[in-house]
Structures are given as structure tokens and as C-alpha cells.
Amino acid sequence: MKSSGTSFLERFLSNTKRERCFNIGSAVPFLLTCFFVASIFSFFLLYSPNPLSLIPDQPILLPPHKQHQRDSTDQLASPKPNFEQKRCDLFKGKWVRAPRESSYYTNWSCSSIPESKNCFKQGREDRDFLNWKWKPDACELQSFNPKTFLHIVRGKKWAFIGDSVARNHMDSFVCLLSQEETPVEIYKDSEDRYRKWHFPKSDFTVMSIWSRFLIVGEERTVNGSGINIFDMYIDKVDPDWANVVPDLDYAVISGGHWFFRAMYLHEADNVIGCVFCQQPNVTDYSIDFALRMAFRGVFNFLNNCQNCKKKTLVFARTFASAHFEGGVWNTGGYCNKTGPMSEAEVDWTSFEWKLRNVQMEEYERGTRQGDNRYEVVDVTRAMMMRPDGHPGEHWGNKWMRGYNDCTHWCMPGPVDFWSELLLALLLQRHPSSDS
Ligand SMILES: *[C@@H]1O[C@H](CO)[C@@H](O)[C@H](O)[C@H]1NC(C)=O
Ligand SMILES: *[C@@H]1O[C@H](CO)[C@@H](O)[C@H](O)[C@H]1NC(C)=O
Ligand SMILES: *[C@@H]1O[C@H](CO)[C@@H](O)[C@H](O)[C@H]1NC(C)=O
Ligand SMILES: *[C@@H]1O[C@H](CO)[C@@H](O)[C@H](O)[C@H]1NC(C)=O
């Protein structure tokens, strides 16, 4: 990842998006849009060298969407089954002071922490951000118990599907489990997009599957280089993950960070709209519409998947917001807070929260009443309160030439709590495993 990342970074920096925008169009709104798109969110290109290396082979066609609505208030599905209504809402709560569990990993006891997330190794000195625990309003969230977890998932296959933040989650998950059983790495690609671990004693397999949009999205190229404009096929899910699902027992699906780009939305060979392109004959949508269509496509696929084992349990993880302050990633934005924010300090009108709401709406819409195959892992609220959890300058400076990483999460760090949620959700289904 490091070597190809650097060369990609060089290519990227020598080819500024602003120039491309001047070449492509002349309308002022378009330029502003280009600037917005390029400056705020091209960050993720840096984390994903060579975005063109994965051209999906066999797109998987979805049944047609019934309608496209920008407004979603009218499309909530019927209420959840009773057993869910009785559960504690794990996602509404606050961060309370509590020393980090001594049974959790450190940068010494987990050897697989990626350099870019190993914040202490990279020079982060404050450690107090580890001493906070999520407290749901209506119950306690148990600490992560790797033994219990491995007992529940014995003999199973588990995948984290999504972008580099999904991979971040897998890395944390593997470190947490590694305190009970040492995993064996059985696959890793050169760009660190696909990775597979096996826990031999528990015969448990964990993998990350790279799918930045979840649906098929292809970057347009000019003379062989990508121009940061994407063609999105909202009726085709990305085969890179969809082909794997039939073989899985568990999947954690997430996405969102790649959607802040100029996009043409295709359905059944027609362009039905676009995001950030502002052409007179194409309907202009906002980013959350593209994300909505991607999530809708995911559930549409899963609900209609003939080959899928009916027992595959799908966790939909909601958006984890970045925390740039004082600028964006390439204009000096930073994140050097050392503790959580209270609920009152968070801007709940922010776009990140809106993206989460879109994901929740599509989850409600896509999962049928009584269908036991889905869970939501709604991390957004808790993570919006954790501006202190990112590598920030303690990686950025070394690798990204002064840019801060306020998007991914330090390990150890608050990202470990996502796996506490996974365990809590599994225990609600397997109460007898609780020991
Ligand atoms: C762990 O973090 C310390 C700083 O707290 C650092 O000196 C050390 O190199 C790190 N070790 C590993 C193996 O990453
Ligand atoms: C693409 O390459 C051709 C031939 O080298 C050149 O004439 C053209 O200007 C290039 N287009 C762009 C947009 O760079
Ligand atoms: C929109 O109009 C432009 C200019 O007439 C044309 O080049 C383009 O193909 C049109 N786009 C669609 C989706 O019809
Ligand atoms: C955080 O970084 C900004 C910009 O570098 C700086 O002005 C500020 O003093 C820093 N705050 C802390 C608490 O270190």
C-alpha cells in the first residue's frame, strides 16, 4: 500500500483537479462544484491507489427500482418485528469515562495494526482518548469478549464490505479477537484492499472486500488517467462483493465516503440523473441520492438473491463521519482534539448526519418485517462525538506530506467499539452464549 500509494499520490498531486475542471467545462457553478468535490473528498483517492484497477467483470442486474424519490419521508417500511422493539437501543447514549479494558489489545499485543492506524507508533502522545466507553441510555454495553465471540462464530465466514473505513473496522476486529486466538493471514493483495484471516482453532474466516460504492461505479478516463467523474449503475450491484455473499455467514456492509464526487447515474442504459454535473438536460441530484440508490440496490440484491444462503446475517453499518476542523483535508484541516464531544457540541444539522438518516431509511425500507437476516449497526451518532479518534497529523505528516487523516481511526481507539456492538447484537440472537 505504501509504495503504490506514494506513486499514486505523486500522480495525483501533479494533476490537479482544478485544471481538469477548467478543461472540462466553463460554467462557474461547475467550477465551484469541481473545487468542492476535488478539495474535500479526493482524500479517499489517496487511500485507494489506482482506482481503476478493479473493473468489475460480470455486473449483477437488479430488478428495476420502482421509483426514485429525493424525498424519503414517505417511504418508511412497516414497523420492525416485536423482538426488535423490545431491545435496548444500543446506538443512543453517551461516552462515559472508564479505563480501557485491560483485556483489549495494545500496539504491542496486536501485531497486525496497519502503520497508518498505529497512532502511538506514529507519535501520538495523548492516551486519555482510550479511556471512554459507550453507554447506551437504556442498558450497558458489554465489553468485547473475544472468547464469546469466537464461540458464536465457530466454523463461520465473515466479511467486511466497503471502503477503507470498512477495512479499518476489520483491522480492529481482528486485533480484538487476536487476544484470544492468533489468526493466520491467508490473503492480502498489494493494495491492502482485500485481506483474509483465518482463526484455526475456531475455524473462523474474516475478510475485507473492497467495494467503494457497493454498486458498479466506473471512473471516466481521459487519455488513460482518471478524471474523478464516475458513471454509476444504480441497477447493478458490485459483483466483487455480491458474488461472495452466497458463501458468507455474516457480512458487514458500509459505504459513503466515496460518494462526494461528480457522478452520472445510469439505470437500464439511460442516464437518469447526475450529481455535481449541472447539465441542462440531466436531472441534478445531491450526493445523498446516489448513496440512497446504492443502499437501496444492496437490499434489493440481498432480498432477491437466489443463491444466497438464507442464513447469511447482514449488518448494515452507518456512516462514520470525518472530523476536519479549520479546513478540509488538503487545505490544512486538522483534528487534534484529545477527548469526546458531548451530544450538545455536535452539529446534528451536518451532512454526515443526513447521510446516516438516508442509510437508516433505506435499511428500514429494504428489510422486511419479520425478516431475521438483517441488523443495523448505527455507529454515526457515537462517532460524531469522537473527533479525538483519528490519526490526524500522526500519519498524515509522514505519508501524506502534511495532510491530516481525520477520516480513518486510530487503533486502539474508539473504532474498537464497533465490534462491541457486533457482539451485543449477536448476543441478542444467541443469549445462551453469554457466559
Ligand atoms: C507502540 O507505541 C509506542 C509508543 O507508545 C511506540 O514507541 C512503539 O514503537 C509502538 N510499538 C509497536 C510495536 O508498534
Ligand atoms: C489526449 O491525448 C491526445 C494525443 O496525445 C492530445 O492531443 C489530447 O490533448 C489529450 N487530451 C487531454 C484532455 O489531455
Ligand atoms: C445533454 O446535452 C448535451 C448537449 O446537447 C449532450 O452532449 C449530452 O449527450 C446530453 N446528455 C444526455 C444524457 O442526453
Ligand atoms: C490544534 O491544531 C491547530 C492547528 O494546527 C492549532 O492552532 C491548535 O492550537 C491545536 N490545538 C491543540 C489543542 O493542540
Automatic annotation (TrEMBL):
The lineage of its organism: Eukaryota, Viridiplantae, Streptophyta, Embryophyta, Tracheophyta. It is a single-pass membrane protein. It is found in: Membrane. The keyword Transmembrane helix applies. Belongs to the PC-esterase family. TBL subfamily. InterPro entries: TBL, TBL_C, TBL_N. This is Trichome birefringence-like N-terminal domain-containing protein. It comes from Acacia crassicarpa. Pfam families: PC-Esterase, PMR5N. The chain crosses the membrane at residues 21-47. GO terms for molecular function: O-acetyltransferase activity.
